[in-house]
Amino acid sequence: MNVNLQEGKRYYSIGEVAKAFDVNASLIRFWDKEFDILKPKKNAKGNRMFTPEDVKNLQLIYHLVKERGFTLEGAKTHLKEGQKKTLDKFEIISKLEAVKAQLTAIKNQL
What we know:
The structure is a single chain. It is built from four helices and three strands. With 110 residues, the protein is mainly α. The chain has a single domain (12-109), classed as Multidrug-efflux Transporter Regulator, Chain: A, Domain 2 (Orthogonal Bundle), CATH 1.10.1660.10. Strands 1-3-2 form a three-stranded antiparallel sheet. It is globular. The two termini are 27 Å apart.
């Protein structure tokens, strides 16, 4: 899943992140509690502020849970056993989806 967030920002609010993933903020909060790889900062009010690295980790969690149908425990195990390997596969899939979209756009122009 490609996430459309304003680039160049150091932190994103939970609302921005939830909107980008098209999920409720409560799901993002739940995943924050469940997955150790998420480490959002908190501002003076206690609101979660996600870094681009956190967003990348959320993309990975979203991919495993929502797109591939992993259970939470299965996703946690998968991340612990091969986080680097999983991240590499996810990046390859994202790039292939972008290429597919470009090819479809070219095909439609013909």
